[in-house]
Amino acid sequence: MNEYAVELRDVVKVYGGRRSGARAVPAVRKVSLAIRPGEFFTLLGPSGCGKTTTLRLIAGFEQPSAGELLIDGRPMQAVAPNQRPVNTVFQNYALFPHLNVARNVGFGKRVRALPRAEQERQVAQALELVRLAGYGERRTWQLSGGQQQRVALARALANRPSVLLLDEPLGALDLKLRKQMQSELKQLQSRVGITFIYVTHDQEEALTMSDRIAVMAEGHVLQIGDPLTIYEHPATRFVAEFIGETNLLDATVDDLYEGLACLRLAGQEAQVPLNGTPLRHGQHVCWSVRPERLLLLPPEEAQSNLLRGRLREAVYIGTDTRFVVELPSGEALVARVQNTGGAGSRQFAPGDEVALCWRPEDARLLVEERGQAQGYELLTIDKER
Amino acid sequence: MRRAQFSPGALYYALMAAFLYLPLLLLVVFSFNDSPTLAFPLKGFTTRWYGELLLAGELLAALRNSLLVAAGASLVATVLGTMAALALTRFEFPGKGAFLALAAMPLVIPYVVLGVALLIAFSQAGIKLSLWTVGLGHVVVSVPYVLLIVMARLAGFEANLEEAAMDLGESYWGALRRVTLPMAGPALLAAYLNAFTTSFDEFALSFFLTGSETTLPIYLYSQLRFPARLPLVVALAALLIVGSLLVLLISEWLRRLGPPSGKEPAL
After folding, report:
1. Which chain B residues have a beta carbon less than 8 Å from that of A150?
2. Fewer CB in a 10 Å sphere around the end CB: N or C, chain B?
């Protein structure tokens, strides 16, 4: 078996240009990915970041302008979509409305090459896999959104691809159904053992389902890593902001010792781990700390590593309370405190003087995105490599 | 509030319908009138003219010519128009807008002008006028109708159905055969019938391009010089009205047939 199910090496895709007469628009800029067999790999980013284009390049609907694409170790240049060992679940499902459910599922070339009885058996099997047994005779447009979604999944899986491509497959479903389908998809993937490449703009979806995530923006891959790495150790400011809620703060380096940077901001001090980032005295840096890692205390109880401020707003959201604290400099930080009840819980009112505390290891120094000319790929880190 | 007994809408509609259909109704009435002159008062009921129709050899030959030309010309027009519709809805190429405008041009050029132009072209090319030249002329004027009808259908469902077919292992031609054409099928038939009626009653082009054998409209026109033959012509016209109405109904029914397109919302 090949080391990688899908490999992209410096793949570039530029739309338009000379032939069409339109202005050249780069959609994917020098993307390199190495996706392992059996992996649930997610391309995550805002709309227009190039994630869908990357998927279409893998499917063969688009040809790379430069770079190399390999599937199962085979170069895919000049291999038509119908010759590739991949199948796609489209965002709008793309079910054939002139065929019933069973004929949709049995549409693939591989299934049709089988004897009639075997075809029927495999179609039934695929429908059972997505819990739609007995729906074969229905028309596709008589099904609910979630059911159509599953037919699209069964149709792609019946073809036994070595890689399944999913383009925001849950985007059209309502929240409850989406949550349910997320866990179903994840279970299905571990059952069939096929490599999934999943495109989404929903960071929560990406974190819940993926083995690894590639965060994309403006055609670049900013960071590749497992959900924990992406969330806990964002490589860039964009990643930190895009994945979950975070507090981003500007500061200057005051002192450096024992792997910690002592930062100065708003006339106060903050300690942040260096994690190997080379810094010098007086340098301007950006750092972040997640709202759920901040502790809200009355000022007299706090001791070290704290920022003082005034509580601007407290919003009760059931499981948590969301506090907005304004520093004397005018910057605002968000803290999320779990409503555990009992002895630990405290009452604060807007206007109170408060202190925000955190463990130094919960804070992150962030690299600023450089100009596009220098390329984001320099910043791409893969923790597992 | 308006009184329920009188609605201006009904009056408008009645006026329009009378204007459109009274002459046709008159035609049907005279076709059963027992007199060779087309004038009131009516003389009595007869089906004599319909009977004599069956014995009018030349007239039947002209009818047969028209049916053949219409059948052939609409087939060619449907194939050409469908290919152009596929090009315009599924592919990007330079000058697409100009191509669409050009393809729809025969809709706005007067048929008389087109007839003269084709006549010159054929005689320059040394092609003898015959039913074939009439058929070619009819292809030219039918293609725009086919193009517009088929384009509307193709634009109605997502191009990614074809991508899905290719993704599942079909070649471009396989996707066309198994997805695009079956889905556009009713529209293709409707386009064919539309082209058929266009060709069948076409006069101006046929007048310029016809050879020794004539189509029905040309033949009917030539018969107007013989008053005795007039009731036959009227009877035939009445039959054609019924026939056209049937074709129109079938074509409209076909256009509405078929599964909903991909763009319509799911349940």
Report:
1. none
2. N
**Residue from the list A21, A81, A92 with its beta carbon closest to the beta carbon of B94:** A21
Query: For each of chain A's 385 residues, which pLDDT tens digit applies?
Result: 678 999 999 999 998 765 555 677 888 998 999 999 999 999 999 988 999 999 999 999 989 999 999 999 899 888 988 899 999 999 888 999 888 899 999 998 888 888 888 888 999 989 988 888 888 888 888 888 888 989 999 999 998 899 999 999 888 788 888 888 898 899 889 888 899 999 999 998 999 999 999 999 989 999 999 999 999 888 888 898 898 889 988 888 888 887 888 888 877 888 888 877 778 888 888 888 999 998 888 888 777 778 888 999 888 888 888 999 998 888 889 999 888 776 555 678 888 888 888 888 888 888 765 433 333 333 333 333 3
Chain B residues closer than 8 Å to A139 by CB: 259
**Strand, helix or coil for residue B252:** helix
Residues forming CATH 2.40.50.140 domain(s) in chain A: 239-366
**Which segments of chain A belong to CATH 3.40.50.300?**
6-238
Establish whether this prediction's ipTM goes over 0.85: no
* B258 token code pair: 């078929």
Name the pTM for this structure.
0.77
Q: A239-366, what's its fold?
A: OB fold (Dihydrolipoamide Acetyltransferase, E2P) (2.40.50)
Q: Return the CATH superfamily for domain B67-215.
A: MetI-like (1.10.3720.10)
| Chain A: residue whose CA lies nearest to B160 | A94
Architecture of domain A6-238: 3-Layer(aba) Sandwich (3.40)
CA distance A115 to B250: 39
Q: If phi over 0 gives left and psi between -120 and 50 gives alpha, with beta otherwise, what is residue A266?
A: left
**CA of B171: which chain A residue's CA is closest?**
A82
Beta-sheet strands, E only, within chain A? 6-15, 25-35, 40-44, 66-71, 74-75, 86-89, 163-167, 195-200, 212-217, 220-225, 247-257, 260-265, 268-273, 284-289, 295-297, 306-317, 320-326, 332-338, 353-357, 363-366
